[in-house]
Amino acid sequence: MRISDALRGFCFFFLDLWQNRSVIVQLTKRDFQNKYLGSYLGLPWAFVKPLAVIVVMWFAFTYGLKVGRVDENVPFAMWLMVGIIPWFYVSENVTGSIHSLQEYAFLIKNISFRASIIPLIKILTNSVIHLFFILVIVVICLAYGYTFSIYWIQVFYYMACSIVLTLGMSWFFSALQLFVRDIGHLLEVAVQLFFWGTPIIWSYRMLPEKYVIFLKLNPVFYLVEGYRNTFIYKVWFFEDWRTSVYFWCVMTGVLIAGALVFKKLKPHFADVL
C-alpha cells in the first residue's frame, strides 16, 4: 500500500466518523449502559476495580514497604494515582476492545456500516470513565496542596495520544483475534508484563541513567510520565521534544499497522462470525 493510499483511507475514516457521529454517540451510550448499567450495582462497577487496585497498592507500599514519599518529596499516594490512571485507560482500551467485533457482529454484517468504527466505540466508552478519573486526580492534587496550573490542560493532549495509540492496537488485536483465538490470552499476559515493566508503581529514577533509554522505548512510559509531568512536575510535552517525536513515530506506526491488518482481514470477518 502506498502512503497516499493510506492517507486517503484515513481521510475516508474520519469523514465516516463525522457523517456517522450521531450513530456513534448512540452506540457509545448503548455500550456504556450494557457494560455498567445492566448489573445490580450498576455504574459504581466502573470505579470499584481501579480504586480497589489503587487502595491495595497504596496500603502495601505505604505501610508494608514503608514508602512515604518519592521523587522530589512527592506524596506516594498522589504519585501512584496520577501514574496508574493512564495505565488503566490504555490497558482497558486494548483488552476491552479485543472482542468488540464479535460483540457487534450484527453491525459487521451490515454492509453500509464501517467495521473499523466498532473498536472506537469501546474506547469512547472507556473515555467517559477516564474523564471522571481525571477529575479525581485534580481533587487529589488540590487536597495535597497543589494549585490549579496551566500545565493541567495538556492532560487532554496525552488523552488524545492514548486514544490514537490504542485505536491502532485495537484494530490489530480485534481483527487478529477472530482468526487466532489465543490472542486474547496472550494479550492478558503481555498487559501484566508491561504493567510491571513500566514505571507505574516504581520510579524510573531508581535506575542508572544508561538504562532509562530502554524504558523510553515503551510508548506507555511516555503517557504515564506525561500525566505526572502534567499534574506534578509541571513540564510541557514539547520540552523533551525528542521523546515526543519518537512517541509520535511509534504511535503513527502502530496506527498504520493496525489499519493495514484490519483492512486485510476485514473481507473475511463475516465468514468467521
Automatic annotation (TrEMBL):
TM helices/strands, residue ranges: 37-61, 73-90, 123-145, 151-173, 185-204, 245-262
In this chain the ABC-2 type transporter transmembrane domain maps to: 24-231
List cellular component terms (GO).
plasma membrane
Q: Does the keyword Transport apply?
A: yes
Q: Cellular location of this protein?
A: Cell membrane
Q: Where does it primarily localize?
A: membrane
According to Swiss-Prot or TrEMBL, what is its membrane topology? Multi-pass membrane protein
* Statement: the UniProt record of this protein carries the keyword Transport: yes
**Listed Pfam families:** ABC2_membrane
Key words, A-Z: Cell membrane, Membrane, Polysaccharide transport, Sugar transport, Transmembrane, Transmembrane helix, Transport
One GO biological process term: lipopolysaccharide transport
Give the GO molecular function terms: ABC-type transporter activity
Report the family membership: Belongs to the ABC-2 integral membrane protein family.
- What's this protein's name? Teichoic acid translocation permease protein TagG
Q: What is the lineage of its organism?
A: Bacteria, Pseudomonadati, Thermodesulfobacteriota, Desulfobacteria, Desulfobacterales
Gene transcribed to yield this protein: tagG
